[in-house]
Write a structure and sequence with these properties.
Bound molecules: pyridoxal-5'-phosphate
Radius of gyration: 22 Å
Number of strands: 17
Structural class: alpha/beta
Helix content: 25-40%
Largest sheet: 7 strands, mixed
Shape: globular
Number of helices: 15
Distance between the termini: 41 Å
Strand content: 15-25%
Length: about 450
């Protein structure tokens, strides 16, 4: 079939048979879908052979670029042995090696790896582990079965993860299905809920958190947080020392700290895990996305030995963690995840990233002058540009105006693929992106913002 005919046929079948995530399908059906067939480095290539810059790392998963030979090889080599065998009652070499390696690189004190297959389930596992841990470890203390989380948090789309999330547009309509939780204001300095300014505020937003912990710790199983960066909220970056203080408070009030490193893990913030910037070890840690370098769906929840031990006992004590998935510990996913971690060593990914983080900051800096750029937030190789209708009053663009969507459409026309968070533009290229490609991305982003906001 000629390229054009093939693309047309695929587009028709897409519109006829598919239902895309986070997508208004009525609109999708009217548009030409972009059908990606191949990739190379920081580029995605569609069925017509057109190249696009992958400005979102394919939704925050890709680290070393597409079609990295070492990652391709890892999957092919594993495929010659076996694609999958169950982890229920059996084990497999890649899953064992990967667990060892994860514990080696994780914040000190995390000692056990429980696999699942996406970020939401890694969070779901952490929540269930926390509740069951308290039931078994300290039954006399009464049920500790709710969670504290930050407003605007996003921990995934399964119902447990949605319960500890707080993005009204995504979560509001499911409220009746969710378990009750406690919420605290996030450290959103650009729109400080306390109307204060950092650093003179001395992180006063921590006071209400301490108050909640003091009053309600008896019922709190855990405090779940996206360490350093609340990603889906619009890359809200926490001030230095905030996470460490949260760790101290959780320890003081005997509430488990659950770090959701699904977005921040694997180098995104400039260190392997965001917690490591502040020497923090959470009690439970959810990881996914970059775990396989963006190749395969795989996730894990890491736990301390203390938590793990809380589940030990004779079978008839029924302390087993009764949770698992068909594809838990998938050998293909684990093999490519291992190769991903090898690349961090062999290619010195983190060391090579540091100057690029600085370059990103330097290139983004001038965008602050644009009349509709309210704030730019960056942590490591993740950045967000908050667009505002009125810079002085910080009035956001109305949701219906879909400013982010319009900038994205403009950027796509110039060969850069983005995925905005409402009025917030996100730039999260693969860690391997070189400086000139990064510059190209930021130039297109700037021009697209200017074109759309000027009109
Ligand atoms: C912090 C965080 N947690 C959890 C998730 C959910 O991950 P997944 O989409 O793999 O279920 C995401 C996804 O963006 C995330 O950013």
């Amino acid at each position: 079939m000629a390229k054009k005919n093939r693309t047309t046929a695929l587009a028709d079948w897409d519109r006829t048979y598919l239902w895309h995530p986070f997508t208004q399908m009525q609109e999708w059906e009217q548009e030409e879908p972009l059908i990606i067939e191949r990739g190379k480095g920081s580029y995605l290539i569609d069925t017509a052979g057109k190249k696009y810059l992958d400005g979102t790392s394919s939704i925050w998963v890709n680290l070393h670029g597409h079609r990295h030979p070492a990652l391709d090889r890892a999957i092919k080599t594993q495929l010659d042995k076996i694609a999958h065998s169950t982890f229920l009652g059996l084990s497999n070499p890649p899953a064992i090696h990967l667990a060892r390696e994860l514990i080696r690189i994780a914040p000190k004190g995390l000692r056990r790896v429980f696999y699942s297959d996406n970020g939401s389930t890694a969070v779901e596992v952490a929540l269930k582990m926390a509740v069951q841990y308290w039931q078994q470890r300290r039954p006399e203390a009464g049920p500790k079965n709710t969670f504290l989380h930050l407003k605007l948090a996003y921990h995934g789309d399964t119902l447990g993860a949605v319960s500890v999330g707080n993005i009204e547009l995504f979560h509001g309509r499911f409220k009746s299905l969710l378990f009750p939780t406690l919420e605290a204001d996030p450290p959103y300095c650009y729109r400080c809920p306390l109307n204060l300014t950092h650093p003179s505020c001395r992180m006063a937003c921590l006071d209400p958190i301490e108050q909640i912990l003091k009053e309600r710790h008896r019922e709190l199983a855990g405090f779940i947080i996206e360490p350093l960066v609340q990603a889906a909220a619009g890359m809200i970056t926490a001030p230095q020392g905030y996470l460490k203080k949260i760790r101290e408070l959780c320890t003081k009030y005997q509430v488990l700290l659950i770090a959701d490193e699904v977005a921040t893990g694997f180098g995104r913030t400039g260190k392997m895990f965001a917690c490591q910037h502040e020497g923090v070890t959470p009690d439970l840690m959810a990881i996914s996305k970059g775990l396989t370098g963006g190749y395969m769906p795989l996730a894990a929840t890491l736990a301390t030995e203390e938590i793990y031990k809380g589940f030990l006992g004779a079978y008839e004590d029924f302390k087993t963690f009764f949770h698992g998935h068909s594809y838990t510990g998938n050998p293909l996913g684990c093999a490519v995840a291992l190769a991903n971690l090898d690349l961090f060593k062999n290619e010195k990914t983190l060391a090579r990233l540091q100057p690029k983080i600085k370059t990103m900051a330097r290139l983004l800096q001038p965008l602050r002058q644009l009349p509709h750029v309210g704030d730019i937030r960056q942590r490591g190789f993740m950045a967000a540009i908050e667009l505002v209708e009125d810079k002085k009053t910080r009035t956001p663009y109305p949701l219906e105006g879909r400013i982010g969507h319009r900038v994205t459409a403009e950027a796509k026309g110039h060969g850069l693929l983005l995925r905005p968070l409402g009025h917030i533009m996100v730039l999260m290229p693969p860690l391997s992106t070189d400086t000139s490609t990064l510059r190209r991305m930021i130039t297109i982003l700037r021009e697209s913002i200017t074109t759309v906001t000027d009109s």
